[in-house]
Give the backbone structure.
Amino acid sequence: MTTETKLLTADALLHLHSQGVRGELIRGVLCERQPGGIESGAIIASLGREIGEFLQRNKLGTGTIGSGYQLERNPDTVRETQIAYTSLEKLPRDQRITGYAEVVPDLVVEVQGFNRGVREVHDKARMWLSFGVRLVWVVQPETRTLEVHRSGAAVVVVGEDGQIDGLDVLPGFTCPVASIFGS
């Protein structure tokens, strides 16, 4: 006897979210997620604030925290970012989206936490790049470093004494790595 897995849609995931179920869809299969810890939440808040203030000053696009992006249909894939930036060209300010955005962000930030292993975070970084994200930052609280991932390029590790740079994705954005760890 075989059991057939019922694939979920992005709309079904939104409905589940309204009922308190937290997760992502990978090709229609629900992958439940537990909330991150205080340390990763503080890092997300700190770096999210830095990016948000920069976007507001420069009117560059939309910054989000904890938002879902629909990357595939039939079967649906919806992944959640911890922090993301999407340019005005892809997501105009006057476009209201109440569900999942069906665009690929330009920048995604992932923070490794107690509930996410190194491999999981690196796999997700590679997945974002494969869908066309131009820049992925992976924050490693244990080593107090930030990894810069770009398609076709070697990963660059920036230490606590260095600065991150928005490169051509967020031109002019810089931030001391120490500041995202509260130092």
